[in-house]
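Appendix C: a fully annotated inverse folding record. The material below is reproduced so that readers can follow the format used throughout the book. The structure is listed first as tokens, followed by the designed sequence.
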């Protein structure tokens, strides 16, 4: 980290300090591949913009995301699920599975399962909610890899939400790599 002293700092240190920022990847529900048990939902009655996960069994949807060059893969990323619930009470639990694969690597590699914690609905039906963070471990991917992401409603965990949970997308926050080399 750049040190600031009473006389200021070098231009290189200032550039490194200002250049270290965060970025965001947004994966909308429409970019997820529906698995046989999940369905699209019409929001506002006309446009399919969510994936509906019901309460009867574990359901999932998958997406593939390219890891751009500006992601600092040596720092953990945080994923957040944006969703709403038709019920006004109860807890919903989502899990995320992921694996990062480079060109030439076996796509059948084992995934990392990040179990979610139960999120309590806010008491109002159809309100946009955001899950707590799911960590994608540091060094779990590399620039240029494809991140295979699976979102699953885990009804066998602490999930007691009686109705559907509609997922609108997943936000992944990451730290950017400095453009100035040390």
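Designed amino acids, in order:
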């Amino acid at each position: 980290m750049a040190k600031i002293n009473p006389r200021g700092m070098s231009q290189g240190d200032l550039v490194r300090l200002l250049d270290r920022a965060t970025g965001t990847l947004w994966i909308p529900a429409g970019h997820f591949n529906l698995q046989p048990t999940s369905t699209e939902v019409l929001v506002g009655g006309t446009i399919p913009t969510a994936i509906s996960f019901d309460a009867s069994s574990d359901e999932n949807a998958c997406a593939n995301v390219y890891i751009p060059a500006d992601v600092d893969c040596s720092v953990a990323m945080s994923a957040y699920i944006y969703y709403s619930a038709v019920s006004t009470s109860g807890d919903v639990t989502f899990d995320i599975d992921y694996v990062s694969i480079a060109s030439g690597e076996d796509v059948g590699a084992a995934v990392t399962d990040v179990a979610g914690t139960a999120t309590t609905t806010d008491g109002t039906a159809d309100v946009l909610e955001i899950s707590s963070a799911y960590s994608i471990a540091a060094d779990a991917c590399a620039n240029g890899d494809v991140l295979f992401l699976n979102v699953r409603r885990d009804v066998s965990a602490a999930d007691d939400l009686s109705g559907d949970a509609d997922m609108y997308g997943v936000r992944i926050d990451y730290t950017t790599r400095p453009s100035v080399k040390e």
